[in-house]
Design goal:
heterodimer; A: alpha/beta; Glucose Oxidase, domain 1; 8 strands; B: alpha/beta; Aconitase, domain 3; 4-stranded parallel β-sheet; 15 helices; 14 strands; 38% helix; globular
Chain lengths: 155, 409
C-alpha cells in the first residue's frame, strides 16, 4: 500500500497525561484558545483568525504549541470529552497545564482522559497536517508522513 | 485531605490538585488566602455536572472566594432571547458555586470590588483579564488558573508552589519600547487596548516589560491593556516601567537579567494592531457593546456625560455589561439615568460572550474593548468594529459605523 513518498519517523515525547492514541494530525504553530476557538459539539476549530479555522479536530491528533488566552479553554475541552468531539490526543511544545487539567478532570468525571504529550520545538516542527500519528504509553510518537508538495494549512 | 478527613469534596479537589502539581513539576503545595472562580460560566452539561458533583459532596471554600461572571443575568435575561433551558442550567451552576460559600460578585473585574487583593498576596485566580491585572497592577501572585482547577484551589486553600507564585519567575522576558509614539496617541482611549493586542500577539505566554510611556495610565486603561494582552496572547503578568509595582526601574522589572528579546513599537505597528481588532467592512451597525472587562464606576462616569442630549438610533442596540454591585454604585452616582434616556440597556453579572442573549439579527458589533473585539467573531459569529468610546457613541447615534481616524493617520 505504501508509495515512495511515505516515510516513518519515530519521535520521543514527554507524556504529560500518558496513554495510547492514534489519529490524523492537525498541525499549526499558532496557539489556540478553545473558548471562542473550538465547537465542543462538532470538534470544529472556530477561531476565524486561526490557520486551522474550519477544520474538524474530533478524533484527530491536535498539534498546537500551547493553549492561548482564556482560562475557559479547560471547560470547553471537558465538554468536548463528554460529547465525544474531543481530539484523540494533543501534542504541545511545553507543559500546557490547561490541556492537562481538562484531561485530569475528564478522567475523574468520565474515566476518559485526553492524552497530552509534549515534543521539543524541533521535533514539533517536523509534524505536518495529514500525517498519521500513533502515540504509546511511554511517549513514543510514530509519524507516518507523505512528503509531497506543500501543505498550506501549516505555517 | 487526600485521605478524606475533610470530606469527599475536599478529597476530590485535592486529588485533582495533586495530579496537577505533578504536571506543573511542583516540589510542594503552598497556602493561598484568596481565590476567584472562573468556572461559574455555564459552557455545557459537563461543567454543570462537575459543579453539582462538588456541591453535592458538600464542598466549601477554605479562603475568601469571589465568583466570575455567570451564564445568566437573573434580572434582565427575559428581555433577551435567552433559551429557557439554558437559563435554568446556567442558574443551577450559579447556585452550585454559591452553595460552596463563595461571594456572589459575578464579575470578571473582581479587582474593582472590595475583595481587591493586596501586594504580595498569594491567590488562585481564574479569568485571564483578572489574572493579569492582579499580578501586574496589584502585585498579587497567581498562576493562570484554568476553569475547574480554580475551585479545587479554593476548596483546599492550596496551590502548587510554582510559576508566578515565586519571585524568581516574575522577571520580565521581552522588552517593548515605544518609539516616537506621540503623546496624543498615548492619551487616546484606544491606545491601551490596541497596544495590549499587539503586545499579547508578540509576547504570547512570556512576561512583557513596557518602557517609554510618557503619559501615566489610569486604572481602567491598565485593565483594558491587560485584557487585550490576555486575549491575543497568554500574558499573565506584565511590567510597566515606572507604573506597575514590581517595575520601579527597567532593571527591577527584569530582576537584573538581560531581556530575551527587544521589540521596538512604532506608529505603523500600532496602526496594524488597530486594524486587526476590526473584522467588519462597510458601515453597517447592529449593536454597540461596552464593558469587557465589566464596566467600572469610573467608566460609567466617563460615559454618562457623553450620552446627555443624545439618543440611540432606532436600528441599533446599545449595551453596557457590568456586575450587579457596580450597577448599584453607578445608579447611586446618577450614571444610569443618562444611559436609560439615551436608549441604552444594561446587562449585569454576565456578558454577551457568556450568555446566548443576542438576537440572531445582530450581525455587526462595535466596541471599545479589545477583548470583545477579539472573541466576538469566534464565539458569536458576528463581525466587529473597534473604536474609541466616542466613536462607539457617535456610531450608535448615527446608526452606522463612524470613526474619527484623524489621530491614527
Amino acid at each position: 500500500m505504501r508509495n515512495n513518498q511515505q516515510a516513518t519517523m519515530q519521535l520521543i515525547a514527554t507524556p504529560i497525561i500518558p496513554g495510547a492514541a492514534a489519529g490524523r494530525a492537525l498541525v499549526s504553530n499558532e496557539p489556540l484558545s478553545f473558548w471562542g476557538g473550538y465547537d465542543y459539539r462538532t470538534g470544529e476549530i472556530t477561531d476565524r483568525r486561526h490557520p486551522l479555522s474550519g477544520q474538524i479536530a474530533a478524533g484527530c491528533v491536535l498539534c498546537v504549541p500551547f493553549s492561548r488566552g482564556s482560562s475557559t479553554t479547560t471547560a470547553v475541552l471537558l465538554e468536548a470529552v463528554r460529547t465525544g468531539a474531543a481530539p484523540a490526543a494533543i501534542i504541545t511544545t511545553g507543559v500546557d497545564s490547561f490541556f492537562a487539567l481538562a484531561s485530569v478532570v475528564a478522567d475523574v468525571m468520565y474515566g476518559k482522559p485526553v492524552l497530552v504529550v509534549a515534543l521539543s520545538p524541533a521535533d514539533f516542527a517536523r509534524l505536518r497536517s495529514g500525517d498519521w500519528i500513533e502515540i504509546d504509553e511511554a511517549g513514543q510518537v510514530t509519524v507516518e508522513t507523505e512528503r509531497e508538495g506543500n501543505d498550506p494549512s501549516h505555517r | 485531605m487526600l485521605a478524606g478527613d475533610r470530606g469527599p469534596a475536599a478529597q476530590m479537589a485535592m486529588s485533582i490538585l495533586v495530579r496537577m502539581a505533578r504536571v506543573y513539576g511542583a516540589a510542594e503545595l503552598m497556602d493561598i488566602s484568596g481565590a476567584h472562580i472562573d468556572s461559574t460560566i455555564y459552557i455545557g452539561e459537563a461543567g454543570l455536572e462537575y459543579a453539582e458533583r462538588l456541591a453535592s459532596l458538600g464542598a466549601k471554600v477554605a479562603v475568601p472566594t469571589t465568583l466570575n461572571v455567570s451564564g445568566l443575568d437573573e434580572q434582565h435575561w427575559q428581555e433577551w432571547p435567552v433559551p429557557r433551558d439554558w437559563a435554568g442550567k446556567a442558574h443551577r451552576q450559579m447556585i452550585a458555586y454559591q452553595s460552596m460559600g463563595a461571594i456572589p460578585t459575578w464579575t470578571c473585574a473582581p479587582y474593582q470590588t472590595e475583595w481587591r487583593p493586596a501586594f504580595g498576596q498569594q491567590i488562585a485566580w481564574g479569568e485571564s483579564n483578572a489574572i493579569v491585572f492582579a499580578n501586574s497592577v496589584l502585585g498579587a501572585r497567581t498562576e493562570r488558573y484554568p476553569d475547574l482547577l480554580d475551585i479545587c484551589c479554593a476548596i483546599t486553600g492550596r496551590v502548587p508552589a510554582v510559576g508566578l507564585h515565586l519571585t524568581e519567575n516574575r522577571a520580565g522576558q521581552v522588552l517593548f519600547r515605544l518609539i516616537d509614539v506621540p503623546q496624543a496617541i498615548q492619551a487616546d482611549d484606544t491606545f491601551y487596548p490596541v497596544f495590549g493586542h499587539l503586545v499579547g500577539r508578540i509576547a504570547q505566554d512570556r512576561i512583557p516589560v513596557i518602557d517609554g510611556l510618557t503619559v501615566a495610565p489610569a486604572e481602567d486603561q491598565l485593565k483594558s491593556f491587560g485584557a487585550a494582552t490576555a486575549s491575543s496572547g497568554a500574558v499573565a503578568l506584565f511590567h510597566m516601567v515606572g507604573v506597575t509595582p514590581e517595575a520601579p526601574t527597567i532593571q527591577a522589572a527584569f530582576q537584573g537579567r538581560p531581556p530575551g528579546q527587544i521589540v521596538n513599537v512604532t506608529m505603523d505597528d500600532l496602526r496594524q494592531a488597530r486594524r486587526e481588532l476590526s473584522t467588519s467592512e462597510g458601515q453597517q451597525l447592529d449593536m454597540v457593546v461596552l464593558g469587557s472587562p465589566h464596566f467600572s464606576l469610573a467608566e460609567f462616569g466617563q460615559l454618562a456625560p457623553l450620552l446627555e442630549g443624545r439618543r440611540v438610533h432606532a436600528g441599533v442596540q446599545f449595551l453596557v455589561t457590568t456586575s450587579r454591585g457596580m450597577a448599584q454604585l453607578a445608579k447611586a452616582a446618577g450614571h444610569l439615568d443618562p444611559l436609560q434616556r439615551f436608549g441604552g440597556r444594561l446587562t449585569v453579572d454576565t456578558c454577551i460572550l457568556a450568555t446566548p442573549m443576542l438576537p440572531p439579527n445582530i450581525k455587526v458589533l462595535m466596541t471599545n474593548s479589545a477583548k470583545y473585539a477579539y472573541y466576538s467573531p469566534g464565539l458569536l459569529g458576528t463581525t466587529v468594529a473597534f473604536g474609541s468610546l466616542q466613536d462607539c457613541i457617535d456610531s450608535a447615534v448615527t446608526g452606522r459605523i463612524v470613526r474619527d481616524d484623524s489621530l491614527w493617520r
